[in-house]
Specification:
With 90 residues, the chain is mainly α. 76% of the residues lie in helices and 0% in strands.
């Protein structure tokens, strides 16, 4: 499961980098007036299937999975420490 999350992080990060590079390319190809007042239009055409919400949902899924993993490890460590403390009578 963690391998799937790692792959999803790489895919989403690569797509976001692609979007930023396209926006920077549009900015450098603009006229002199536009360089004084930069105006980059973010359109749906840069996103997967022209749906920006898909990337947002992927980011939310990744954050939820990472948070779940961290909390499960925290609970595991706390239970283990509690068992050790009970064993030694502390």
């Amino acid at each position: 499961m963690t391998f799937l999350i790692e792959q999803l992080v790489v895919i989403v990060a690569t797509k976001l980098e692609h979007i930023i590079m396209k926006m920077a390319d549009e900015l450098t190809n603009s006229t002199m007036l536009a360089q004084v007042l930069p105006n980059v239009m973010l359109g749906n055409k840069l996103f997967w299937f022209k749906r920006p919400r898909l990337i947002i949902k992927c980011i939310h899924f990744i954050l939820f999975q990472v948070n779940f993993y961290v909390m499960s490890m925290y609970v595991y460590v706390c239970k283990k420490q509690l068992r050790v403390a009970q064993t030694f009578g502390v």
